[in-house]
Each structure stands twice: as structure tokens, then as C-alpha cells.
Amino acid sequence: MEIWLNPACSKCRTAVGELDASGKEYVVRRYLEQPPTVAELEDVLARLGLEPWDITRTADAARLGVTLPAKDAAHRHAWLEAMVDQPRLIQRPIITATDGTTVIGRDPASVARVIDAG
Description:
Elements: E1 2-5, H1 10-22, E2 27-30, H2 38-48, H3 58-64, H4 76-85, E3 94-96, E4 102-104, H5 108-117
Parallel strand pairs: 1-2
Antiparallel strand pairs: 1-3, 3-4
Helix pairs in contact: 1-5
């Protein structure tokens, strides 16, 4: 299991607490220090069944001075590149179980689902 997190984020700390309580082994990736590649984001999005704009913290874009492109297929790669260049745009935490189940662990039910998947 792997969790992409920002240690300053309360939702990330809560998810880590739930993972710890479960006794499951996991790897922490501080994605602000080690941003995902476009390929890694593509993989996560495929497992989530979402588009880049669905996991983008759009309010943070303005604070970071990032102008986001249109939400359409023609601009999909530009969204991915923006997320790689500015990883603070990526919603957190993202947790992937060993079976490939992936969630955005912002609520207890999502974290429980990925813990159950193992």
C-alpha cells in the first residue's frame, strides 16, 4: 500500500492514523518533495476513473498563480503537466492498495475501502 501525502494536511494525518490502526504496511510518498510523473498521474486517474480536473485543488491554483486550462480532452495533458509542475494542485491523500484499489482518502469510508482491499 502507498499513500501520497502532505504531512501538513490534517486529512493526510487522519488517513495515516487509520492506516496505522489497521496494522497494514504502507509506504509514504511525500508528493510535494517527490512529485508524480505524468505517467504516474495517468495510472492513478485510470484506477480512480477520474479526469485530472477531478483531483485538482482548483482553489490552490489561484494562490499559486496557475491558470488552469479548459476541462476537456484537448487540454487534458496540460492539466497533467500543471499538476507535475505544481504538485500542491493534487488532491490529497491518494492511497493505493496492493491490489490496485485507489482512493482519495479524505473521508473515513474511502480510507476503510482501501484498507479492506489490502
